[in-house]
């Protein structure tokens, strides 16, 4: 995080050049899963939706297309660099930790890979649940970063060790910014405790070969966190070797486990 940045609790600099490939890699992996989870009967024509921490905006745009001209989508984020309003899609700068919600009586509130990073995640989740219309859905999706990242194939023995060393250090940095690496496992209970019904959870993980968009996410994150990785004792040579590995077709690793949980306000 740049030294003059506000205290966001979020470790990645969303204005940096590497933010764009990071968002594309996330969207290409996750959007097919998310769009399935929020599809009809959750998303219907005329629905009112809030996309929290919208990032590159792909899900907000998909929602806007689904709800049609009678519906409305508000996409909020701390950083609007990658978001544009259009038609029934409204875009607002908003800190979900500190500011009141941008409306109420939403039919769908969705937050993907946002609460994980925020120390106030449980309070924020209760706020999101509190702005649902009767019958409205809250969908919270996170990476479970507690499972060891299984290396499936590696060009040599040192490669798996290096991969574990760098990814462990990146997770340590996220934790030092307030991330809870196990939060994905708690979301189901948190939605239930917030009074939501029909709570269900699905998880997804897949192999990411070297050179794939998924594998590039690890490399991009290592560039975004490079100053802190160097402070943590890794060398530039190790980071370069890590990025080479992620382009090597002889290398393959399992993705993080993506955990999608949704629940519904009764009524
Ligand atoms: C990992 S990105 C995920 C983006 C998007 N939800 C997705 O899954 O493609 C996390 C996003 O949360 C935003 N964010 C972080 N802290 C926030 C806060 N306190 N309020 C609103 N947005 C926040 C970041 O700016 C970033 O766009």
Largest sheet, in brief, is: 7 strands, mixed
Gyration radius from CA atoms, angstroms: 19 Å
SSE class:
alpha/beta
Low-confidence stretches: 1-6
With helices defined by DSSP (H or I, 4 residues minimum), what is the helix count? 8
Proportion in helices:
25-40%
- What strand order characterises the main sheet? 3-2-1-4-5-10-7
CATH architecture: 3-Layer(aba) Sandwich
Shape: elongated
- Give the averaged pLDDT, no decimals: 94
Small-molecule components bound: S-adenosylmethionine
Number of domains: 1
CATH topology: Rossmann fold
**Measured distance between first and last alpha carbons:** 43 Å
Question: Can you say what the CATH homologous superfamily is?
Answer: Vaccinia Virus protein VP39
Q: In percent, how much strand structure appears in the residues?
A: 15-25%
Q: How many strands in all?
A: 10
What does this 3D model show about the protein?
The protein is of the alpha/beta class and 267 residues long. The chain has a single domain, classed as Vaccinia Virus protein VP39 (Rossmann fold). Helix content is 37%, strand content 23%. The protein contains 8 helices and 10 strands. The chain has a 7-stranded mixed beta sheet with strand order 3-2-1-4-5-10-7, sandwiched between helices. Strands 6-9-8 form a 3-stranded antiparallel beta sheet. Helix 1 (19-38) crosses helix 6 and helix 4 packs across helix 8. The chain is elongated. The chain starts with 18 loop residues before the first helix and ends with a strand. It binds S-adenosylmethionine (SAM). S-adenosylmethionine binds at residues 8, 10, 14, 23, 26-27, 53-56, 77-79, 94-97, 112-114, 117-118.
